[in-house]
Amino acid sequence: MAINDNFIKVFTLVFDLTPDQINIDLTQNDVIKWDSLSQMHLVVALEQAFNIDLELEEIVTMNSVKSIADVLEKKGVKVIC
Residue 25 is part of a domain; what is its CATH number? Predict the structure, then answer.
């Protein structure tokens, strides 16, 4: 199971992670830098990277790579290959 390269790039930039640290099971609890402010940075970065608009109802559910992938897939962005 591979993760979209642009998705990995966003995570590495927002959370200062290495690509090998990013996997489908990664959650907000696993990332020290994943707080409310970085969540908003993540949202902006995802919107820019994938040319989408995220709604508040979607943003509040985005607490793991899997949940973010689910939201993005509904927007037509293939995250998991």
Answer: 1.10.1200.10
Whole-angstrom Cα distance, residue 23 to residue 80?
Answer: 10
- Amino acid 40: pLDDT: 96
Which domain, by its residues, includes 46? 5-74
Instruction: Give the chain's domain count.
Output: 1
Q: What confidence tens digit (pLDDT) does each residue in 40-81 have?
A: 999 999 999 999 999 999 999 999 999 999 999 999 999 988
Q: Among 22, 19, 75, 28, which Cα is nearest to 47's? A: 75
Report yes or no on whether pTM surpasses 0.90: yes
Distance CA 7, CA 5 (A): 5
Distance CA 51, CA 19 (A): 22
